[in-house]
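ENTRY TYPE: paired fold submission
RECORD: A
CONTENT: sequence, then structure tokens
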Amino acid sequence: MRSALMICALAASPVAGAPVLEFPVDCTLGTTCYVEDYLDHDASEARKDFACGLNTRDAHGGTDIALLSFDAMESGVDVLAAAPGTVIGIRDSMADTRDANVPSNIACGNGVRIDHGDGWHTQYCHLKLGSVSVRQGDEVRAGTVLGQIGLSGQSNHPHLHLSLEHQGKDVDPFALEGAETCGEDTTQMWSDPLPYYDTGFYTAAFANAVPTLEDARTGAKRRTTSKPDQPLVLYGYFYLAKPGDRLEFTARGPGGTIFGHDLDLGNPRKSHMQAYGRRAPAGGWPAGFYEGTVRLMRGDTLIALRHSHITVRD
């Protein structure tokens, strides 16, 4: 796996009729949003992004651009048309909720589908209920507001899933020709080529004690429910961090923030785990839902982020 930041140039008209894409979210990469997952180029149960890295999920068919928090989603972040075209489909009827049982045929949730001509389509998924601002048949330009990032469909945190298709087949806008070159001179379809970092998270989760590296690898200590008198520990298991990178731990519950902690990584291993937590206060943790975030920072730039949650029950 490559360790350097890679920025690849866009070739002029790489394929006849192929759209040149504008960034589809009104946010700043590395500051108020980040690319969480790329398209998976491995046909097996393994995973491989366009640079032969691990920043994808098995069979993932698009690009996920995630917000840093649910508060940002509530404030409203616009989703923008990536290229000119005609709206050929919309949905704006699904609630914003973490529902793991959403059927696969409506996994996109609220969304917009645009025809760009010559067999090219884009689809924008997980939009906020009531936010879709275009209708079928509308002609849009690049930058037209389509809706806002939400939590509809198969989603557990606020993000846009953007898929690009040509003649019904998934295309990676970061590597039009596929992943054979592993990031070397790949042809991006973005008007301004986007940065790529091979650093990322395997997982982040809550536990009741600091896990070992093997515990983090297997998920043996991961907890989604806890008792009021048990400690709450948030851990991040990540790969290819660089000397000087920083982890930022934050956990919030019914009473507000329960801890925040920044940790300079020094000289991390290729696969590394760090954790932070607190013992239960006198009287125990209030019952309810707790959310944790672990951010991986490189200077002032957000490289990766993972959300986790746990429910405290009496």
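RECORD: B
CONTENT: sequence, then structure tokens
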Amino acid sequence: MAASSVPNPDAELVERVRKLQPLIRSHALRTERERRVTGEVIAALTDAGVHRMNVPRRYGGYQSSARTQVEVLSEVSAACGSTGFTALIQAGCAFIAALFPDEAQDEIFADPDVRVSGTLVPKAKARPVDGGYVVDGTSPFATGCQDSDWHLLTAVAESGEGHPPELLWTAVPMAELDVLDDWHVAGLAGSGSNSVVAREVHVPAHRVLPLGPLLGGSFPSRLNGADPFYGMPVLLLFCAWTAAGALGPARAALAEFGERIRQRGITYTVYGRQHEAPVTHLQFAEAAMKISSAELLTADYVSLIDARVADGNSYTTEERARIRAQSGYVARLCKEAVDLIGSASGASSLRLDVPVQRAVRDLNALNLHSFVNPAANLELYGRVLSGLDAGTPFL
């Protein structure tokens, strides 16, 4: 019996994923070179049940707490940042799929180990037709699309004269989309975030999720509508998932640094052992404090998200803005810690088979993500603290 077909207490899921770290780590360089997660790792994560974390229980899913999801995704990300980022996007897209009409869910979750990718960059167009829409266009940053069964493609539908266009999430089988091999990047290079192309794809109405009402807390699933788990705001959950993508590589880099400083000296100095140098003590301690601070910030808002499930998922605007700011600050702290570790690791750490340089590049890439960007999120929170409108519905 596959591991993912047995009952799944949260602790067992975390432990199963932790045991996969050596495999994921051993494939990290190949993942980066091939610009996508390897098939062996995808299969192992699937068997462990990672892709079931947000699948409804009635289909065999786990509906794992936000805390468990952060722990699981942190463990994956510690072994390979690209693999962790792919897993967090697919976990998030499975959550979004559970907000679609129930008829669509019956199709998508026919296999509880389904892998769902998605984009929130509205480059495609949706043209209304009888019974649904015809979607056409290219959408970039489709993380994990080559290894997904379904894709949630964001499209713009014109609403008629005098009305603003409507943003739609459309659920499309990956077999109906083309993939452009255009993911050639410096960070998170193995995440397979290529562009997907819809060429006059017909999407029936039951596989359409309007984005506007969703941001307001309304979605069409009848069976999940009364479930507090699916009342968790998806954008706040994304803040939790991306924290895992930052904490994992940072923790791994810190552990690697602790090993490297005992194996090398500091060239052109009197220190034949790096771990004996006072400058190393300062660097090590500061990096550790930054990561510890990031962990505390993450625990703070993830605990709030889990607690709100019990009281109706009610958040103030200030709380939503603060969570976005905290998630961006977590990413910044982890980047700063790893930049410090990288600068203290010597020229030999530039080799592509040394994990620390990959962590430096991956965390730089994560901090560039529009929703994660620390400066933008701090400004948003500052606006709210100052009594101004947030200026965005993405809270």
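NOTES ON RECORD B: The chain has three domains: 3-108, 116-210, 232-385. The first helix runs from residue 10 to 19.
STATUS: closed
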